[in-house]
Structures are given as C-alpha cells and as structure tokens.
Design goal:
single chain, 15 strands, extended
C-alpha cells in the first residue's frame, strides 16, 4: 500500500473506530504459548476473558504470573540500586534467547548476592563510623584529660598532707578516690538538651565537659556526615552511671571505653588504625564486587524487564482462555481489526511452525452479541487531540469520532480567543522549541506529568500558535497594537481632519480604526458577531455528525424524527440570525436594526408589520413568520413522532419475545483435516444454535463438551447472554420530552456560550494594551534614568508569564469546554471502551521506562 493510501485509510479510521471481527482461537497445548507470543508481536488482538467468575488464584497460569511478579519485584530492586549509584540502564538490545526458568534462577542468585553485599557494606560502614568516633574521643580526650588528671593528682596530694583542713572544707578523700567518668560523642544539635537532662537527673552532682570534633563525622545509623561533639561526664556511684547510660541511649549518644593508662591509650589508637586499614581493604573488595554486579545489571536490566513484562502479558492472556482437557487445547476469543486479519492468521501459522506441532493453531470468525472495542489510529501529530477527546469518553463502536474535526476546530477556536500576531509568534516559537527538544521532554516525561503533557501535545501547540498568528493578522493586533502591514484604505486630511476612503484594506482590519473614537465599539461588534457565526456553524457540524451516526446504524427513524427537526430548528432561529448579521455587513447603507430586538419581535409579533426604520429587507414579516412556524413544528416534530415510533417498537418486541437468542457461527476458514486432528468436526461449529438456559441438549457437541468441563462456570464461548432492558411507555415519553427541552434550551444557551470567543479576545487585547501603556510609556516618564530598561524588562516578563502563558491556558480551557459541552453533546455518546490488545510494542515502551504495565495495575 502506498503512503497516500495509508494516510487516507488512517484518516478514515480517525473518523470512526475501525471495523472489528470477533475471532475464536483454538490453540493446541504445545502451540499455545508461541501462538500468544506471535499475536503479541502483531499487537492487534483484544482478548476476551472467558473466565470472569474464576478467582485469579485458581486460573491455569496463576503460578506463572506469580513468578513473573516476583521477577518484576527483583528487577525493581535492581533498578533502585542503579539509581542509588547514579547509573542509567543501557537501552534495550535485540532480544536474546532467554529461558524463563534459567533467568528466574539468575535473578534469585543475583538478588541474594546484592543483598549480602549491601548488608556487608552496611555493617562495615557502621563499624567504620564507630571506630572513627572512638578515635576522635581518644584523640580529644588525650589533651583534655592529661591536664585534668594532673590537677587531680596535685589535689589528692594536698588532701593527704592536710586531712584536717580538707574535712573542714567538706571534702572527703574517699569520695574523690571513687570518682569515675564516661566518654562519648553526640550530635551538636543535642548537646545542650543532653547537658540539661544530665543536670536534672543527677541533681548537679556531676562535672560535664565537651569539645567539638574538628571535622564532620559519619553517623553510624544514618551514614550521613554530621557535626558532633565529644563529651566527658564525671560522677560517683553506680546509680549515677546507670542513669547517665540510659540518658545517652535516649539522646542517641555513643559511649566508648576509655583506657586508664597512657600505654593503653597509645595501643588502643594503634589498634583502631590497623582495624581501619583492614576495613578499607575489605570495603574496596566489596565495592569492586558490587561494581561488577552493577555492570551486569546495567547492561541487561532493560532487556530483562522487557522479557519479563512480555511473559506477564502472555500468561495473563492465556488465563483468559478456557481449557479443553479432552481436546488438549486452549479455546479463547477476541477482537481483531478486519484489516489485520491476515497478519493474525500468519502469526498463528508461524507459531505452528516454531512449535513443530502436527496440530495447527487455528482461528475462525464468530458472530457475537458483544459490543466491539473502539480502535482509533493515531500518530505523533494526532495523538494529543485524540487524548483530549478520550478524556471526555471513548467513542462507541461505529460512532463518529470528534478527534478528526477537533484537529482543525480546536486550534481555530483557540485562535479566536488568543488571536494576536505578536503573541501568536511567541507561542509558535515556544512550541517549536518543545519540538526541537523532544528528546529532553521525553526524558522529563518519565518522571514528570507536566513534561509528559508538553511532550504529548508539542505538535498540537504548534498548530494552535500558527492559527493564533493568522487570526492576529486578521484582527490586525500585534502585541495589542495595530500595524499598517498593507497600505491603509483611508486617507486623512491633516488640515481639515476629514477621512476619505481610497480602497479596501488588503487583509484584516484596517489600522486606521485604532485612531478612531469608536474603535472599541467597532471591534466589539465585529468579534461578537463573528463568535455567533462560528458557534452556530460549529453546532451545525455536530448535528450533521449525528446524521452520519444515524445512517451508519441504519436508524432511519432518527434521521427523520431527530436530525431533520433539530437542524431545521437551529437554522430557523440562529441560522437566520447569522443571515441577518451577514446581510447587515453586506448592506452598509441600509437600516441597522438591533438583532436581539428583531429576534424577540419574531416570536412576539409574527406576521405583524415591521416599521420602515427597523426593516432589514423587503418581505421580512413573511420570512420571519414562516421561520417561527417551522420552529414550532420542529419542536412538536421532535416530541411526538419519535415517541410514537418507540412505543410501537416496544409493543412489537413484547409480542415477539421468545426467550432465546439465535447465534450463527461461521467457520469458512476451518479446514476439515484440522478439525479432525483436534476432535472437532465442521458440523459441530457450523450449526445454527438456538439456546435457552433450560435446554442444554440444543448446544452443539463441541459446546456441550465445553459446558461439561465448565459446570461451575457456564460462560458462552461466542456470545454474551445479556438481558435486554425492557422500556416502559412512560419512560419513552419522559425521555423524549426531556431530550426536546434539553435541545431547545441548549440551542439558546450554547449559542450564548460561544460569546466567550468574543469576551476572551476582548480581554486579551485590552490587557495587552493596558500593560503596554503603563509599562512602556508611563514608567519611562516617571523614572527618567532607568525607566526604559525597567519598563521593557517588566513588559517582557508580563508578556511571557501572564499573557502568553496564563491567557493561553485560559483560552485552552474555554476551548476545551466548547468542544466537550457545546459541540460533542450534539452527536457524541462516548459509551465505548478502548481497544486494549496484547501488544509487545506497548509493553516494551512501558518496560524501557520501568513504568507499571496494565497487568500490574489490574493486580
């Protein structure tokens, strides 16, 4: 297929979801795994769960999925270690011949090795920190205690020489001989509180000395550098010792033994140095081993994650199949786009050859009452606007997708509110910058929602910026000022001040209007009427999309009783108002009646004469009278005929209800030789089956075997037995009445809602003009020296931050509302569900970014 045909097909598939076929897969046991694997490579099979009532832990492949979950947990552990060591996983390489069991054993072995290494490193770091702290205590204590011990010895000698004087002073030599001390280290932030607590606990019967450590010390618990202080507490008695030790434990202070002699002190420091050297050597070897393990993980973790994620998807899909133990096969069902049927069949053939099975994997088309999923093909240019539509709801199968129209209407409505040539160019430049740095945005998208949004909508933003630039040129607004791009169509006499028209301005609004006193009145009138015209055309497009939906579903009653009255009602009211707007523009010399007054008189005074000074054209009374009658007829038309048709249909269904559903199974592609191999005859699959819950003998032999094996879970193999809702006559009447009232009132309110196009455009222009007047003109006058620099800098900041960014966001949100409420409610039901195939492409993308897969989210 050529590129042109491909683009045409993609545009058609964007207009409405792709046609689907419901397939039944019969996979022999030996080919089941390879068949699902090949279908995952194609990525176009949406499997249906045929075991909805079976608990996950009782399904066939529950153990395999549990093993995959354990492997994913180990991979997340590997990835966390790479992040800790600031390593980036290598990109995925072509898949190697991994074996699930061998890889699982490798993961378990590597996880144990990594955890052992981490535990060993943690213990060594803790021990190293303790040794360093102890060394600081001994080093600082050596200088401090040497002088203190000397003073103590002199004091004892004096007391022993003159004991009477010592007793007179209240000093007991026996207490001094029993003086003890504890040495330790504590965080700087806790030293004062620690001191006060000791004072309270010991009632002041202690001596507390502390010195700062000259450099930050690694904490043994947190392994972070911290400012610490060495302290010494002098006391007497075992009771005081116990209290001090409990307080040290409470405040995280570390106590260390202090040698009693100088020789022991020197020997202890030497032992600490030797132990530190040994620790450094052992840590180097441990780090080297850790680096080797991390090198292996860095090279392979991405590909491992892809492999395990694929295995999870395969076994998750196989769990949706029903096991036929007699035929030794797995039977499953799923949706496949019609245009990819050949690819699916080729995938099954490849799986049969790879498995070297004598029994091929087969598929055939079934007729099903299930609602097909909705598949909308997108690319990087159309993905953003489709995401906007899907945020409202997924298109129903066969329904018109608003995404294709939104691709054009969204930027245009945004431009009507944001239209400014200068601001539009800035918006476009920023958007082009996002496209140029898409690689950086893609990396940001892995960790940031904002980065993901900008990466997703970068091309859509370019489209919006270009359209805003175009509409700004149409408005002739450049940073909220007018520029004479082309020669003005008016000539002003400098003496008399008279204005003479010479020609028509080439494009957009003539800049001469900016100099007129009625400039604001003129632009308000122009933008307001333009917003009404655009809004009515937008709603008419939505109503015509509803016509396409009715024709596609062959709902001819809705064509005549829903589309026709709605389009005629909208045209007779607001289509006529648009006609009067255009007529007044084209006839500048005629009367200029107020549009609101004319519309009110159209209803209050139909067919009554219109005064000449308010008449717009000849025959206006007759035209407005006819349109008034058409509007009334359309309201009645929407209420009565459709309700009558629905009531008649309900009565017909009640009379013809038989309590069973008829299903036709087609198996044109099922070969007789294949069915004989798996013990299924063609006549077992091509019979017309009239089913009822009470008569199991009416099932075909194949389905009887399936029912026998699944007595605990009677699920139809090809259809969903969904009870049809019976509507009452009163419900039909109420629904029709509400729908009519909602459309009539909605037509008025929705048209008024489009006036936000005018309001935001007016606010945008006036805000820009005010900032220009104050920042670029007033500030330079008030501040003569640096006023121009300050004004220009402030104006640039306000233009980027407030007008381009904030006003752009405001216009985006208002435009989003116009599409979701005013446009899509005319035709868009959004009651579908997304096509979710087993796709290795999608799985690989999530696995490369280490994002949770859809199967993990379900769990």
């Amino acid at each position: 297929m050529s590129n042109i045909d491909t683009k045409k097909a993609q545009a058609i598939h964007m207009l409405r979801p792709e046609p689907m076929e419901y397939l039944q897969f019969i996979l022999p046991e030996e080919t089941a795994y390879n068949s699902i694997r090949q279908l995952g490579q194609v990525g176009m099979t949406h499997f249906i769960d045929l075991n909805p009532r079976v608990n996950p832990n009782k399904r066939e492949f529950y153990k395999d999925i549990s093993r995959c979950s354990d492997m994913r947990r180990i991979l997340r552990f590997f990835k966390s270690q790479l992040d800790i060591h600031n390593r980036v996983p290598n990109k995925a390489v072509p898949e190697e011949g991994y074996r699930f069991t061998e890889l699982e054993e490798t993961f378990i072995t590597m996880e144990k090795t990594m955890k052992d290494l981490l535990l060993s490193q943690t213990q060594m770091n803790h021990h190293k920190c303790e040794l360093l702290e102890m060394k600081h205590v001994l080093t600082i204590g050596e200088s401090f205690l040497s002088s203190a011990m000397t003073d103590a010895r002199h004091g004892m000698e004096m007391i022993e020489k003159n004991p009477a004087a010592a007793r007179a002073m209240g000093v007991d030599a026996s207490q001094i001989r029993g003086l003890s001390f504890l040495a330790g280290i504590i965080s700087q932030s806790k030293i004062e509180v620690f001191h006060r607590m000791l004072f309270v606990a010991l009632r002041g019967n202690f001596v507390f000395e502390y010195r700062p450590v000259p450099e930050p010390v690694l904490d043994p618990v947190t392994n972070l550098p911290e400012e610490k202080w060495v302290f010494f507490v002098f006391f007497t008695g075992d009771h005081a010792r116990n209290r001090i030790m409990r307080i040290c434990t409470s405040y995280g202070a570390s106590l260390y033994p202090y040698p009693t002699t100088k020789d022991e002190h020197i020997q202890t420091i030497a032992d600490i140095d030797n132990r530190l050297e040994t620790l450094v050597t052992v840590q180097a070897r441990s780090d080297e081993q850790m680096e080797k393990e991390l090198d292996i993980i860095q090279r392979n973790v991405t590909q491992w994650n892809i492999f395990v994620s694929r295995e999870t998807g395969i076994y998750h899909s196989l769990n949706m199949f029903v096991v036929d133990s007699e035929a030794h096969c797995y039977v499953g069902e799923g949706w496949v786009p019609k245009r990819r049927m050949n690819d699916v069949n080729e995938a099954l053939e490849v799986a049969t050859r790879v498995s070297r099975s004598a029994v091929p994997a087969i598929s055939h088309v079934l007729s099903s009452l299930r609602t097909p999923p909705s598949l909308i093909e997108t690319n990087k240019f159309t993905l953003a606007q489709q995401k906007i539509v899907s945020s409202y709801g997924v298109p129903s199968y066969g329904e018109i997708n608003p995404g294709l129209a939104t691709l054009f209407t969204f930027p245009f409505l945004f431009a009507l509110m944001f239209g400014d040539f200068g601001h539009g160019i800035l918006f476009t430049i920023i958007s082009l910058g996002l496209c140029a740095f898409s690689g950086l945005l893609e990396k940001m998208a892995q960790t940031s929602d904002i980065g993901r949004y900008f990466h997703l909508g970068r091309f859509f933003l370019v489209n919006m910026g270009v359209m805003a630039t175009y509409v700004g040129l149409l408005y002739n607004e450049v940073f909220s000022l007018s520029v004479n791009f082309f020669k003005s169509g008016y000539k002003v006499d400098s003496v008399t001040g008279s204005v003479t028209r010479t020609h028509t301005y080439a494009f957009g609004v003539d800049p001469i209007w900016r100099q007129c006193d009625n400039y604001l009145i003129f632009t308000n009138s122009m933008k307001m009427k333009m917003s009404v015209i655009v809004g009515v055309l937008h709603m008419i497009l939505g109503i015509f999309f509803s016509l396409l939906n009715f024709i596609h579903r062959k709902q001819w009653a809705d064509v005549w009783c829903n589309f026709l009255p709605k389009i005629l009602l909208l045209l007779s009211l607001f289509g006529y108002m648009d006609f009067m707007i255009i007529y007044k523009w084209m006839d500048p010399k005629g009367n200029k009646p107020m549009l609101i007054s004319t519309m009110i008189n159209m209803f209050l005074g139909a067919f009554q004469p219109i005064p000449d000074d308010t008449r717009l054209y000849q025959g206006q009374e007759v035209v407005q009278g006819i349109l008034f009658i058409v509007a009334i007829v359309c309201i009645v038309w929407m209420m009565i005929p459709k309700a009558v048709i629905d009531i008649v249909e309900i009565q017909r269904k009640k009379k013809g209800a038989k309590g069973f559903k008829k299903t036709m199974i087609r198996s044109d592609s099922l070969h007789a030789s294949t069915t004989e191999m798996i013990d299924i005859r063609p006549d077992e699959l091509t019979s017309n089956v009239e089913r009822s819950d009470s008569d199991s003998s009416s099932y075909s032999p194949y389905h009887q075997r399936q029912r026998k094996h699944l007595e605990m879970q009677p699920v139809s193999m090809d259809v969903v037995e969904e009870p049809e809702e019976e509507k009452e006559v009163s419900e039909v009447l109420v629904h029709t009445l509400i729908d009519t009232i909602e459309f009539v009132l909605g037509a008025i309110s929705n048209t008024a809602s489009y006036l936000r196009l005018w309001a935001l455009s007016l606010a945008h222009g006036e805000l820009g003009e005010v900032f220009y007047q104050y920042l670029m003109i007033l500030i330079p006058k008030l501040v003569p020296v640096f006023g121009s620099v300050i004004g220009i800098a402030a104006w640039i900041g306000v233009t980027f931050g407030l007008i381009v960014m904030m006003e752009g966001l405001s216009a985006f949100l208002h435009c989003l509302r116009l599409h979701w409420v005013e446009f899509q409610n005319k035709f868009y039901q959004a009651e579908g569900y997304a096509f979710a195939p087993l796709s290795f492409k999608s799985i690989d993308y999530s696995a490369e970014l280490f994002l949770p897969t859809e199967y993990e989210l379900e769990r």
